[in-house]
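Morning. Coffee machine broken again, so started the prediction first thing and wrote up yesterday's gels while waiting. Chain of 220 residues, entered below exactly as on the submission form.
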Amino acid sequence: MQFLIHKNAGEQCLKLQGDSYHHLFRTRRTKKTQFLYLRNLRDLNCYTYSIASLDKKEALLHLISSKKTELINPPNGHLIWSIIEPKNIEKTLPILNEFNLRKITFFYAEYSQKNFKLSKERLKKILENSCEQCGRITALEIEFLNNLEEILTKYPNLAILDFNGKSLKNLKEESILIGPEGGFSPSERILFKNKSVYSALNCNILRSENAAIYATLGII
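Came back before lunch.
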């Protein structure tokens, strides 16, 4: 773990409870004499805290100092991903976060299963855990839109990852869209007129989560 994420990092006094407390003091056996390094993912500061008191359920922290971190590698790229089974998205999300992807927009395509629901809080927690492990100091932005029409209205200059397209090496757009497991419907393909289409060349048919990784590598 590179640091701990806490939404109130930067305040003079903090309480650690729940999962964060358990991970630090039960799993990692952190000592009271150690310093803790916290971030909030809203600014670029690393906050150093001392452990003022420690009991069986919580720890009280006092702020010692803060230092702004230079953002050497800013996040880049925008993946537009039609919703698939949540467990597959949750498994892939840390990989995309480690790749330093800037933003993901989720939407329901016509062939998406509408009973699949994503929990914003669960995704946020997964991303926070990933940042703590990989050292990313900026939050991956998550957005939800309803359907393809809304996507094309908000992001008219996107590219499409589909069959029979150009090599992703020639990608110029920052945003790229991938479909669900069943692909795009005929009515959706009509909406792609005049859009740039790229293919996963030299690959077999990709599962949606693998297409997400492939597309991300092309836009970051």
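The CA atoms of residues 107 and 145 lie 5 Å apart. Going to sketch it on the whiteboard this afternoon.
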